Structure formats: structure tokens, C-alpha cells
Amino acid sequence: xxxxxxxxxxQIIHFLPANLLSQVGRHPLGIGMHVKCLGWYxxxxxxxxxxxxxLDECILIFxxxxxxxxxxxGRLFTIAAGEVLFIPANKPHAYGADNDDPWSIHWAxxxxxxxxxxxxxxxxxxxxxxxxxxxxxxxxxMFRESCRLASTGLTERTVLLxxxxxxxxxxxxxxxxxxxxxxxxxxxxxxxxxxxxxxxxSVARSLTLQDLSRHAxxxxxxYSALFREQTGSSPVDHHIRLRMQAACHYLDTTALSxxxxxxxxxxxxxxxxSRIFHKILxxxxxxxxxxxxx
Length: 294
Known about the structure:
Blueprint: E1 12-15, H1 18-26, E2 34-41, E3 48-51, E4 58-65, E5 67-72, E6 75-80, E7 83-87, E8 93-97, E9 104-111, H2 115-119, E10 128-130, H3 133-151, H4 156-175, E11 180-181, H5 193-201, H6 209-216, H7 220-231, H8 235-253, H9 258-264, H10 270-281, H11 285-290
Antiparallel strand pairs: 1-2, 2-9, 3-8, 4-7, 4-9, 5-6, 5-8, 7-10, 10-11
Helix pairs in contact: 3-4, 6-7, 8-10, 9-10
């Protein structure tokens, strides 16, 4: 079988020189995470990499077209268009393009004190993330922008900017709602986007867990567990916070009294509304209105 590590028509590769890498790695804004190299391999036929001891850095590979594969922990993974392969530091691995339908990939290697924290968000022995199409477009755009920035000259400032761009990509991968990681078909377990849109459209009234789970088409127990897993909060608490965000908007942009704001958001008792507001925002509605912002 033919094998290639690089040399694909139209490829882009940016490697950081050792002295610049050391400099950025010591910078207060680079210690947490910094890019070591990145690139773009279009239609990478015969692409294959094998590292029996791994690398002391994390690897992110985003497949935009075609297919690829990866082998880790004695398991074989397939990576299709719209999926991301995340390889933790020091993880023995091999990966490459599908023989018949070779992948086109954006890729980056990164290190830093926070790199392991991102890797820890992966379930055990799972390394592939499925990306909704809207997020996939944004991730591809960020990778293209990173390569463009790197092409303007590898300076400390540029590398820090590219590194922050990659942090944004990692944020999309791990903290957007509805994310599914690894294994099987890797379909999204349940996309909560419509549920959250329903909450936002219903800030003028109180919603119970039963209301929300019924709208989502799930049992209250299942819905609550999925919501907490994907957002870090309970459904009812999330809705309350959205209502308080709406309250802030009214307080910032209108002359409505606290009582009137309370009524617009479906709170019959303005004193109860004020207690909830204080619990969420840490101050009363009037104190919030008087505070200097921006």
C-alpha cells in the first residue's frame, strides 16, 4: 500500500519554529493553550500516520469531505465528513485516509496546561465528535482563518491569535448543546436547540418541567437528564435565567417600572420577581438599572 505523510496538491502547512514555540509557551496567554502546527490537506490520497508512542501534544483533525480512519486503544474508528477526530497527548495512534474516498482535512496540533482539560471532556475511549452542519461550517471557517493568519507571518502575536481562534473551535466542539461524542452512528442523542428556542419564546410565562419535556417529546426524567448533561443546568433553572436576561433587557432599554417588568415576564408578585432577580444577578432590579454598564 502506498503511504504519504504530506505532499498533497493544494496542501497548507504551518509549523512553529522551536524558538517561537518556546516563547509562546511561556507567554501568560499561551501557557494554557497554544498551537504548535496546523494545516489543510485536500483529498489526501494515501495519507497515513502512525505514532506508536503518541506525541506530547493534542491533535485535532476535522474532515470536510471523504472519509478517514483512526486506530487507538485497539479499536478502529471511522471519520466521515462533518466529524472531528481528537487525539489526546501521549496517546499511541494511527490514522489515515480512506483508500476509495480519501478525506480532506483541516488539522492542528496544540499543547499547554489546558490541553489535557479539553481531552478529559471526551468519554473514555471515544475520540470522534459529530458536528451539526451549521457548526461544521463555522469550524471550517475558523480553520481557514487560522491558516490565513499564519500565512501573514509567524510572530508571537499571530500565534497567540491563531491559538485563541482554535480555543473558539474547541468551545464549539465541547460546549454547544446537542453534542454527541464517539461510537456507533454518532447521531446527536437529542438536539435541544428547539427546546431552548421554545424557552426564549416563552419568557413571559412560567414553564414547568412537564411543559418543557412535553414540548421536547421526552419523559420528564429523560429530558431533565439530557438537558443537564448538555447545558450544565436544569431545564426550569435555564428558563428562569432566560427570563431574568429578558428582565435585564427591559431595565436597560425601557423606562418600565420594576412592577411593569415583572408583569411583562409573567410574575404576578413583583416582590417575588425581585427576589428571583437578586438570586440570579446578585443585586436588585433597581440596583441593576442604576449600575454603570458597557
